[in-house]
């Protein structure tokens, strides 16, 4: 388990690999169902959790935009596919050797289309001076680990962009409109994430950050960009939610009590009626 503190140069892999600390995503798993949390995080025989294509692309986007100097060390683009019947043996052998070298490199392989989207999304950000101003001159991907005073659990958070007076999160999305973002915020617990980061900075750096802002870039043409400050009421709800979940999680751990879904009568939803 990583000790409480601030880790400015910790890699994303090391941050996510630490299982002794609680993240927003693990709290979401507990909120879904206590047994689900146990199965995904505590079961010693659990299978490896595969990364979805969406998760891989999102991580690549963050690296491409915020830590571009690391991109070529961590990612590679798959070579153009060729068939032996269409090219000479020499060219086909070179293609196969390139594929084998990539497989052994340890890099995450993206498609040429992935790279095209990344480039277009970066251009979209650069055409919006407001977005670039929110990113420029900030601390990037700084990792915080701290002890929650109520539960005693170690919590972690990793803000994308951190200024002295604002937290900025960079998101990829399918719909950057206000309505689309609002739905994504609730489903993705962005307000919880901001609440956790605020508490981390207050605990470890002894300062308050008043502003929480999301920059969203759509993953399809014309790659629209939106910028939304999150209001104080939403952040307060997020803080209260994660703190209560930590207390509930600690109780479950201490008593080894991770029930599955309860039996309950199901009715039609109110919108259907």
Please provide a written account of the structure.
By secondary structure, this protein is an alpha+beta fold. It has a single domain, classed as Lambda Exonuclease, Chain A, CATH 3.90.320. Helix content is 48%, strand content 16%. The strands form three sheets. Strands 4-7-8-9-10 form a five-stranded mixed sheet, sandwiched between helices. Strand 7 and strand 8 form a beta hairpin. Helix 2 crosses helix 3, helix 2 packs across helix 11 and helix 10 packs across helix 11. The longest helix is centred in the C-terminal third of the chain and has 23 residues. The protein starts with a strand and ends in a 19-residue tail after the last helix. The mean pLDDT is 92.
What gross morphology would you assign?
Answer: globular
The amount of helix comes to 40-55%
- Low confidence ranges: none
Number of DSSP strand runs:
10
The rounded distance between the terminal residues' Cα atoms is 50 Å
Q: Helix- and strand-based class?
A: alpha+beta
- Order of strands side by side in the largest beta sheet? 4-7-8-9-10
Sheet with the most strands, sense and barrel status: 5 strands, mixed
Helix and strand string, N-terminal first? EHHHHHEHEHHEEEEEHHEEH
Beta-strand fraction estimate: 15-25%
CATH topology: Lambda Exonuclease, Chain A
Number of domains: 1
Can you identify the CATH class? Alpha Beta
